[in-house]
What does this fold into?
Amino acid sequence: MRNPLRFPTWVFYAASRYVSARRRDKSSPSAFLSILGIAVGVMALIVVLSVMNGFQLGFIESILELSSYHVRIENVPADRMGGKFAQELRSSPGVVSVIPFVELQSIVRGSRRVQQACVIRGIPVNAAEQDPGFTDKLDFEEGAFDLSDPRSALVGAEMARSLGLSVGDEFTALALSGASLEAINPENGSFRVAGIFRSGFYDYDLGWAFIGLDAATALHGRNAPFVYGVKLSNRWNDAAVVADLEKLTAGTGMRVVSWRQFNRAFFGALRTEKIMMFLLVGLIFVIVALNIFQSQRRMALERREEIGLLRAVGASVFSVRLVFACDGFIIGLAGATSGLVAGLLLAGNIQTFFSALEFVVNGFITLVNLVASILSGGNAEEAGTFSIFSPAVFYLREIPSRTIPLEVVLIYSFGFLSSTLAAWTASGKAALERPAEVLRYE
It folds into this structure.
């Protein structure tokens, strides 16, 4: 006769009964608290990482689209600008666009006679057509992307505010060029503002301006440092593209640099920040797992007689431990699923959540001001409004949020697997009890 306890179907039934029994038994630790703890941990990790991804990816995309590109080819000779070499670059596998540019360190002065340092980049007048991703990151407050006039310039919004510039105003730029300090050649140029942009990155909005490539070459003078900015269809495939371009530029003195190398310090800091945040918020799971461990250990001791009966009728040690592991799995699955749903809803509507929170806090402040005004006879000072991320303090207009599916899967898996592992570990000693010793006095 086959032993029915060899089959795992009864295990899930027994585990579900244990969960419901603990809910009714007031003396046993509540499974609801464990489920709530896992749900809060999963929700908190999803929301925190989504907001962090929103900030970090916004910075990264601004840098890659506007500044470093996916791949840079530096030290390009003037005779390699355009023509056959540019066509070979554009025909390389994985390359979407190739933009030549010249970058100048300069000092600019506007109508307020205020001077400041500025990076002036000369780009083709049709850069918007060649590289749509570039213009997508530029939000023009005034004017538009128009470099058809040789004296046209696009300036950042913060720089325009600092220099007192509006569309149509003129400013002067002083650029220093030369192969050495003894051979410095100052060049002076006058430009008219054709557009004022915001990129979402404060450094660019404060200290960057774009002019035509020919105008930048004339401003720099001889031996202008030409660079090719290359955009890829998949920026994560940069290693293969760099290898192909290094073969194409071998022996020419040109240098091929990936976006990982060009920005490794900044991107490395962002990665470290994200890992540390993940670990700190992930401590919630450690606390919940310890709670589940103690709960399952206590339940295993309270049910020694039932474990002895299961062992006496043929249940194996593995099957008994599996009952407790399934108990933890059910708790973890319920908590992780509810936390997943809440986290995704909150991360997808984070701006609405903060707006509602600000509305509640400001309503409370208004009520307190009203009461204080009544008690003081109208002499109370009125408090200001509350804003979690005030534009006066933080350089943003709304809270960004980006949810990465792989991270969500990892968080969800870690949520229910931690409780399963804690329950499995807690049942080890109780499952080894000998039936005869347990049932001797029963």
